Amino acid sequence: MTARNRMPPWHENVRLNNGREVLIRPIRPEDAVTLRAGFPLLQPDEVRQRFLHPMKELSVEQAERLTRPNTRREFALVAAEPLPPGEALVGAVARIVVDDDGQAGEFAILVSHYINGMGLGRHLMRRLVRWAKGRKLERVYGDVLESNLPMQALAASLDFRREAGESPGLVRMVLDLPKPKPRTPPIPPALIAG
């Protein structure tokens, strides 16, 4: 998988291992229609692993909520066909939501089986972590089904550790982020000269 071209912040064209090109970009309100339309293409296990319970459809309200993140505490990316929002089929969604205490962010990633196994989940997770570091969060975590071994393996390969989940059947994958280094104020010129 390779990224190329200069684009607006958080936008990038990525060529997957199979040669297919996708556009990774922030989610937009126009994506709500295509998210709802593409939801039936997901396999039941994909839905359960992302939402932690079965769902037959994505309601209008859910789609609106997903595509209108609160930019003060949420960040969401999609991997979509390189077409305008509202026309492009979305193959993956990755999001992070900052906890109320402002110290940690909870991630969630869904990659469709059509483009699964091509490095996209890893790429999206790295983008979420980069955003979290920019927000100076202390950690990133996500609750994952015990049966979702691919997601656990992906997170572990990026130095997430496994903890007990808050509910039966879940594990929590946690990544502690490095603390930002304090900035050293410059030495006033008067002290250097004297």
TrEMBL record:
Could you tell me the keywords of this UniProt record? Transferase
Q: Which Gene3D superfamilies match?
A: 3.40.630.30
Q: Which domain of life is it from?
A: Bacteria
| Classification via Pfam families | Acetyltransf_1
> Domain named N-acetyltransferase: which ranges?
22-178
Entry keyword Transferase:
yes
This protein's name: GNAT family N-acetyltransferase
Species of provenance: Thermomonas aquatica
